[in-house]
Write a structure and sequence with these properties.
By secondary structure, the chain is of the alpha/beta class. The chain is 50% helix and 18% strand. The protein contains nine helices and seven strands. The termini are far apart.
Amino acid sequence: MKPQARPGIAIAVGLSILNVFRRAWRPYQTTLGLVDDLPGYHDVRSYPSARLLPGLVLYRFDAPLFFANAKTFRDEVVAIARADPAPVWIVVAAEPITDVDTTAADVLFDLDHLLDSRGQSLVFAGLKDPVRRKIDVYGLTAKIEPAQRVAALLVDQLTGPVRFTQAATELIRTGATTFVEVGPGNVLSGLVKRIDRGVKTMSVNSIESLERAQEALAR
């Protein structure tokens, strides 16, 4: 029985290897958007009602970037750039990109040059440190990051863990005495009061409460 089982095992292993190559060659790609009552950004295919940010597309490419799929990545980014209305920022949610080879680096150089000529910016957010060090060796960091780094940090802030306590504590330390919460409920106001009971909080969730807040802040 054992000799008969070996060809089947070999075929299964071979098919598994081919499937890995197929996924790397033509990886899953999607756009991410905001979903009501869910933190972070989510796949618009899974959540068709997800809202996109005006002027910005958050694009995810679920594979390392290498010679076999670099053109696929380029073609998709170019298609996004040519959409109507055209985005100003194309932000790559880069956590799944675990490597960038030299061929992909050349493609990224050319892609960044093309987008620059169109007045658009390519940003990589959430790059793992080993990948960041590698693209720095290629010289890509200086090419695609300086001005765009601010946008990448913004996306990291929006998609990363909320550091509300640290932010509120620092604001109070630097002299903030009044906090205005905009939206239903007063959860954040309650959190601020836990940090410092001496600060003043206001909740704005209607036209009337907005007018009251304006009057109070004008005093």
